[in-house]
Amino acid sequence: MTFNLSGFDPTLAIYVWISVILTGLVAWLLTRRARADRPGVGQSLMEMVFEFINGLARGAMDENPAFLSFLVMLFLFLLVANFQGMIPALHSPTTNLNVTAALAILTFVMMWVFGFKKKGLGYFRHWTHPGGAIGMAMLPINIIEDFSKPLTLAFRLFGNILVGEIFMGIIAAGVGYFQGGFALGFVWWGFTAFVNIVQAFIFMILTLSYVGQAQASDH
Amino acid sequence: MHINIALNPLDMLDALVAVGILYLFLQKYAFPPLLKAVRDRQTRIEEDLAAAERRHQEADQLKAELEAQLKQVKARAEVAMSRALRDAEDEAQQIVTRARQESRRLVTDAEAEIAAERDRALQSVKQDVADLALRIATKVLGQEISDGVSERLVQEFADQLAGSRAGGDSAP
User: Fold this and answer.
1) Is A3 a domain residue?
2) Which residues of A are less than 8 Å from B36 in CB distance?
3) Domain containing A98: what range?
4) How high is the ipTM of this complex?
5) Per-residue pLDDT reduced to its tens digit, B32-51
6) Where residue A3 falls among pLDDT bands split at 50, 70, 90?
7) Paired residues of A3 in beta bridges
8) Dihedral sign of CA atoms B98, B101, B105, B111 in order
9) Closest Cα in chain A to B10
10) For residue B170, what pLDDT is reported?
């Protein structure tokens, strides 16, 4: 792992922007003619996503429509970005650590912002949880736990999507060389699709969970 | 496939900018119509529910009014029925009284008629008996009795007959 300040990767930028444009376009096409009386299939799907995430957010944190929109955007973007790797000649931007790390840092910043907004400096009290001598002993562990959250978020998404894409590539390359290659490819394709959805969901739900924890009074 | 785990702030910044722009785009163009549609639907459902609740209350009120009216009508009907029964009983009583009076009058009239008929019959019998007696007497004596005599004789006979009948009636 290196830290490179000068090597901007234009290919990655293109993949990121393809994901962004696809997400924006699909969301806009599905919702631009949204109507109250007879919703279409696309509108119903978007409403289901919104309602589902809203239901999760209601139980986890204070009501915040802007953050709810952020969660929906994050889920949709990750869904599109993860599936982008399944399109031939394209790669998923989430197979690049810079993208997943950027999103994880965004989550970390939000966690702190929401925590500060709700509790002020009292937000740091959770570092000495459960208090007293034990709390002081737990201080480094709690700090490490806080900072490990974005790390785990970034590496989980990056690793899962990268592995899926690598195996897809290997199977695609070897389809003609061994018996049952096509069937294996089909099964792996289905499994990868499932993992893509699950990973998008996990990233979104963990973001919600961390922000919710930061706001919680017993945190 | 090139696997890159080198962290590059510019790549990260690019991803953040892209996601930020996507968020702004969705917040401006994609989510508002969707949320508006959901809100409109929710408002309409709430209005429908409120209207249904209102109609339910109106129906309850109407039901209560109708029940009260029905109670009043029943009470009035009971009063009217009891009055009609009382009137019918009075009427029946009057009819019976009138019938009794009528029958009594008829009986009295019939008795009077019978008495008159009997008197007339008795008178006729007396006359017939007297005439018969006179004819017999005329045949026995062989001569005509003058009208004045015959009338006197008839009267006397009739009186005697009446006296004998009276005596006969009193006889055991």
Assistant:
1) no
2) 34
3) 10-215
4) 0.89
5) 999 999 899 999 999 999 99
6) low
7) B7
8) positive
9) A8
10) 46
Q: Does residue A1 sit within a domain?
A: no
Measured CA to CA, the distance from residue B14 to residue A84 in angstroms comes to 18
Structural domain boundaries in chain B: 9-167
Tally of domains in chain A: 1
How far is A74 from A65, CA to CA, in rounded Å? 14
Predicted local confidence at residue A1, as pLDDT: 47
pLDDT greater at residue A71 or residue A5: A71
- With CB atoms and an 8 Å threshold, state whether B21 touches A102: no
Distance CA B61, CA B69 (A): 12
Q: pTM for the complete prediction? A: 0.70
In 3-state terms, chain A is what percent helix, strand and coil (to 5)? 80, 0, 20
Collapse the DSSP code of B7 into the 3-class scheme (helix H, G, I; strand E, B; otherwise coil) and give the result.
Answer: strand
Residue A6 has pLDDT above 70, yes or no: no
Residues from chain A that touch B19, judged by Cβ atoms under 8 A, are 20, 73-74, 77, 102-103, 106
- Verify whether the Cβ–Cβ distance B38 to A1 is below 8 Å: no
Supply A88's token pair: 């031939």
Distance, CA of A196 to CA of A63 (rounded, Å): 28
What 3-state class would DSSP assign to A129?
A: coil
